[in-house]
Amino acid sequence: MIFFWAFVVGGIICVIGQIMFDVFKLSPAHTLSILVVSGAILDGFGLYEPLIDFAGAGVTVPITSFGNSLVHGAMAEAEKHGLVGVVTGMFEVTSAGISAAIIFGFIGALIFKPKG
Amino acid sequence: MADKQKKNLPPDAQNYQAFQQQRETKRPLFKNCIKAFLVGGFICFIGQIISTFYIYFFNFTEQTAGNPTVATLIFITMLLTGFGVYDRIGQFAGAGSAVPVTGFGNAVISSAIEHRTEGFVLGVGTNMLKLAGPVIVYGVFSAFVIALIKTILIKWGGL
């Protein structure tokens, strides 16, 4: 059942992105930034975890999960070390996405040649 | 363009703008949304398959499986971007391929590949995060503000 909800919820988030593209005429960079910030805000109110339980990859795969895991890492570290933890813990959980993008980006640049 | 600016233009230019607006192709919103829904949903569906794999074989939980899933998807994106397939998916799907992390991965990887001719430090190094930068900057700053407010509320507000 979680496969079905992952498809539906993930699809809905992409439709929200498409509406921002087409109706509000925002650039992709603006759209993605807004989605990341809204993911962070949702996690601030504690609404993102129940969504993950409900839709699994439907909410961890869209870019909104970046905002969620940034807040998550910051909060986890803040519980241990107080306010300093907010800064030091930020990338603890998100690191997978960003480091994977940088590592594979570099490997890609080594292997592939630009087209056209 | 703002209306105020429009009034200062010569009449010819105003006519031209009216004409241009008339002729501008309307974006087929409904059709685009359906495409975005199907492709975006499909990418998340694949993500769920990968998540399930990690949960069953590597003892991740539903909450923590997101990280390895994201890394795996970005690896797949590298191959698709390198062979030029992701661009075609992107033209068809619009936001459906841009909103999932694969779109973030594609932005990083494609600018890395594109600028390799300018050298590995000045080309790949400087341009890799050009398109993905805003996402990281706004994500980090908003997360900082939110986590700061929440920590202060918990510590001194007794939340």
What would you note in describing this structure?
The complex is a heterodimer of chains A (116) and B (159). Chain A has helices spanning 2-22, 28-44, 48-55, 57-60, 64-81, 83-88, 91-111. Chain A has 116 residues and is mostly helical. The model of chain A has no long low-confidence stretch (mean pLDDT 86). Chain B has 159 residues and is an all-alpha fold. Chain B folds into 2 domains: 34-128, no CATH class; 133-159. In chain B, helix 3 crosses helix 4 (66-82), helix 4 packs across helix 7 (101-114) and helix 7 runs antiparallel to helix 8 (120-127). Classes of the chains: A mainly alpha (116), B mainly alpha (159). Chains A and B meet through helix 1, helix 2, helix 3, helix 4 and helix 5 of A and helix 3, helix 4, helix 6, helix 7 and helix 9 of B.
Please give a quick description of this structure.
By secondary structure, chain A is an all-alpha fold. Chain A is built from seven helices and no strands. Chain B folds into two domains: 95 residues, no CATH class; 27 residues.
Instruction: Count all strands of chain B and give the number.
Output: 0
User: How far is it from the N-terminal to the C-terminal residue of chain B, by CA?
Assistant: 47 Å
Distance between the termini of chain A: 43 Å
- Which strand-content bin applies to the residues of chain B? under 5%
Overall mean pLDDT of chain B: 84
Helix fraction of chain A? over 70%
- The topology string of helices and strands of chain B comes to HHHHHHHHH
The 3D shape of chain B can be described as: extended
Helices and strands of chain A, in N-to-C order?
A: HHHHHHH
**How many helical stretches of chain A?**
7
Total domain count of chain B: 2
Proportion in β-strands of chain A: under 5%
**Oligomeric state of the chains in view:** heterodimer
Task: Indicate the mean pLDDT of chain A.
Answer: 86
Largest sheet of chain A: none
Pfam family, one (chain A): SpoVAC_SpoVAEB
Transmembrane segments (chain A): 6-24, 83-112
Keywords (chain A): Membrane, Transmembrane, Transmembrane helix
Organism (chain A): Virgibacillus indicus
